[in-house]
Amino acid sequence: MTSGLVTAGGGGGGKVMSLRLQYYVVLGGVAAVVLLACLRYTPTAAAVAAVGYGFWGNGDGASLAAAGAAATTVGGTGTSAAATTGGGGAGGGRSPSRVVIFNFGDSNSDTGGMAAAMGLNIALPEGRTYFRRPTGRISDGRLVIDFICESLNTPHLSPYLKSLGSDFSNGVNFAIGGSTATPGGSTFSLDVQLHQFLYFRTRSIELINQGVRTPIDRDGFRNAIYTIDIGQNDLAAYMNLPYDQVLAKIPTIVAHIKYTIEALYGHGGRKFWVHGTGALGCLPQKLSIPRDDDSDLDGNGCLKTYNAAAREFNAQLGAACRRLRQRMADAAVVFTDVYAAKYDLVANHTLHGIERPLMACCGNGGPPYNYNHFKMCMSAEMELCDMGARFASWDGVHYTEAANAIVAARVLTGEYSTPPVRFASLVNSTAVPNDG
Questions:
Q1: Is residue 33 part of a domain?
Q2: What are the protein's UniProt keywords (predicted)?
Q3: Is residue 352 among the annotated active site residues?
């Protein structure tokens, strides 16, 4: 999702524009080179067909046993899983981390990737609550993925592109703000994030084979939980089209997510936690778009068309996950409908202590939405809510820490998931319920 960040301007417009143009040209060239280089690490369809989806490169052994050969069922309670410093496993001789998460997505789960990639010096009030400083998250504090990590007693995930201060022993965050599931829809679309993971994995295995200690060992890759939270930007970009054309675009978006899961499975991944999209029609950014009348608003003040598209996207993504479960019997593919959890922040906001469910905490324009497409959060004219105020929306697009905490607490229970398993139950499981 777009962050709405605005940088200060200055003099020397011609020189600035020239340097800026050079910067984007160089960035585009580098991205193209990296993408082409990463393609060599993706197995061809013939290779996958030859070895099956249990393929594990570099002579790592056979695929995991099918779930049908195991009789154990995942319990409903999770164990504390503090991350240890991962190691080489068979190659490096260290004990594997008990919790490893590889996350793919957009700004809903970006823990600083966009800031690192683009060199953005984000300032306060971003990160003003928990961190007391900006971290690259487009929020006033923690995201849902942060609360998921905390629930497992493992550190927050480090962004893949963060060059200093990163710790990859408990996984890697490939999510980048503004990313799309559709290739070419953004600089760091899901296919690029997949190639980044494949590069990271291939290089790790190479080092392990050389006896070098690595942050994540072979078992770490095998036992990792692969989380995916993407598609909102794709869907939002099409909402200016007639509704039937929006619906026609959804299968393609879902297909790209499905392919990514298949590719990760082909490289040994067996535990997948997939998020649907949220209630787009309740975002202040969408609500502030000029409209002729309020006939498209539902009883809670949200846009019915946007929300209908979001529900249809989730229905199709959930169906795709169900088909994957049928094909990949030895894998856990859990679909989590975050729409219901996020819409509830509006429908039952008083129960959650949310004062302003449809108004941005950081924006411009005041009630009812405090969102101005030309004077967004972080601009010189932003209007900021009080520190202790309970808003659902941070900047009109992204959620506040308070809202993320509520959503995470509900997501972690498995109540919104199919099959209905708790996130924590995936950590040490070797067999999972694969129905539903």
A1: no
A2: Glycoprotein, Hydrolase, Membrane, Signal, Transmembrane, Transmembrane helix
A3: no
Residue 211 maps to a domain: yes
Q: What percent of the chain has pLDDT over 70?
A: 76
Structure tokens at 92: 């490096």
| Structural domain for 163, as ranges | 42-426
pLDDT in tens, 74-121: 233 333 333 333 333 333 334 444 799 999 999 999 999 999 999 998
Whole-prediction pTM value?
A: 0.78
Inside any domain, residue 22: no
Mark whether 395 is an active-site residue: yes
pLDDT at 408 over 80: yes
Strand pairing partners for 274? 228, 335
- Tell whether the model's pLDDT for residue 5 goes beyond 70: no
Q: How many folded domains does the chain comprise? A: 1
The candidate with the shortest Cα–Cα distance to 117, out of 186, 19, 205, 214, is: 186
Summarize pLDDT for 262-275 with one digit per residue, the tens: 999 999 999 999 99
Bridge partners of 426?
A: none
**Integer Cα distance of 194 and 263 in angstroms:** 8
Q: Which amino acid is at 221?
A: F
Mind listing the pLDDT tens digit for each residue in 186-199?
999 999 999 999 99
- State residue 428's pLDDT score: 79
Pick from 215, 312, 230: nearest CA to 272: 230
Is the previous residue joined to 125 through a cis bond, with omega within 30 degrees of 0?
yes
Q: Which stretch of 35-39, 86-90, 217-221, 410-414 has the lowest confidence by average pLDDT?
A: 86-90
Let me know if 158 is a catalytic residue: no
CATH number at residue 96: 3.40.50.1110
Question: In the numeric block, which tokens belong to residue 340?
Answer: 């219901």
Return phi, psi of residue 392, to 5°: -85, -40
E strand or H helix that includes residue 333: strand 332-336
- Catalytic one among 195, 352, 398, 417? 398
Catalytic residue among 288, 395, 417, 425: 395
In-domain check, residue 396: yes
Per annotation, catalytic residue among 107, 204, 379, 417: 107
